[in-house]
Amino acid sequence: MRVFGYALSQLHISPAWDRYKAWADYVGDLGVVYMPLGYSAIGHLLNYWMGIEKMMFAAYDWAHTMHGVVEQINAALLRNLDVLPESPAEVIFMGDNFSSDIQPPHFFAEWSQEFYSEAIRRAHAAGKYVAVHIDGRLGGLLKAFAEIDLDCADAVTPAPMGDLTPSECRDEAGPDMILSGGVPPNLWLPDVSDEEFKQSMVAWLDTAKRSPRLIANAGDQVPPGAVEHRIELSRDLVDKCGKYLAVAKSSVSNKSWRLPSSVA
């Protein structure tokens, strides 16, 4: 484990802004291209190197060693954030494929909160926004990230696949965090009716009555085998049900994130 910590502590990011520019030019005004930083130390251990079970045993059995390794790796990741002021990207994309059944709030507070809080602070100091990928269970985590000033929760998946309703997502996130997500993956499939799909999308859009800081899209992803016309249907529902957003903007803080015309 100490060898692993030393190896990843030598991580160095070499900027390739031309690659980002190529994507941004291709997308144009249709969307915002995120610049990914990758996993935190815990994300590396959970997703690349150990898996959930071994990571949890190690966190309990080797707590002192694990804390040292995690801090060593995260310090290297934070050093690499020094390139941010030079980056043409507006939004830095982070996250460990968060799910609150794997990283519940108390685990996040012990192992990752300090890293994400500092990363968000540095990104903001460089004039950037931060989106974190939370594509699993949401209870407790949206609130935890709201408390450290996260700009956007990405891939938010409400019930029935997630554990919170759209309204409960806004309850946890508060009025200032952008919620990017919406229709759960199973509702794009042909065994679900168009009416159920519409109800899910409208429930997501309705949260904008409380805060317009919302991006309406798939909750994490549009799955293989999806009913293709529902992509157009979702666009039409945003056009129809999102018209009140301009009025609602006066009810929230002045914090802003320029969004393209294709999102709510």
How would you describe the overall organization of this protein?
The model is unreliable at 245-254 and 257-264 (pLDDT under 50). The chain is an alpha/beta fold and 264 residues long. It has helices spanning 2-9, 17-27, 41-49, 51-61, 63-80, 105-111, 113-125, 141-146, 166-173, 194-206, 229-241, 245-248; strands spanning 34-38, 91-94, 129-133, 152-156, 178-183, 214-218. It is globular, with a radius of gyration of 19 Å. The chain has a domain at 31-41 and 85-250: TIM Barrel (Alpha-Beta Barrel), CATH 3.20.20.210. Strands 1-2-3-4-5-6 form a 6-stranded parallel sheet.
Summarize the structure.
The protein is an alpha/beta fold. The protein is built from 12 helices and 6 strands. Helix content is 46%, strand content 11%.
Distance between the termini: 45 Å
Largest sheet: 6 strands, parallel
What general outline do the C-alpha atoms trace? globular
Strand order of the largest sheet: 1-2-3-4-5-6
Topology order in helix (H) and strand (E) letters: HHEHHHEHHEHEHEHEHH
Mean pLDDT value: 89
Low-pLDDT runs: 245-254, 257-264
Give Rg in angstroms: 19 Å
Q: Tell me roughly what share of residues is in helical segments.
A: 40-55%
What percent strand? 5-15%
Count of β-strands: 6
Put simply, the count of helices is 12
Can you name the CATH architecture of the domain at 31-41 and 85-250?
A: Alpha-Beta Barrel
- The CATH topology of the domain at 31-41 and 85-250 comes to TIM Barrel
Helix/sheet category: alpha/beta
User: What's the CATH class of the domain at 31-41 and 85-250, please?
Assistant: Alpha Beta
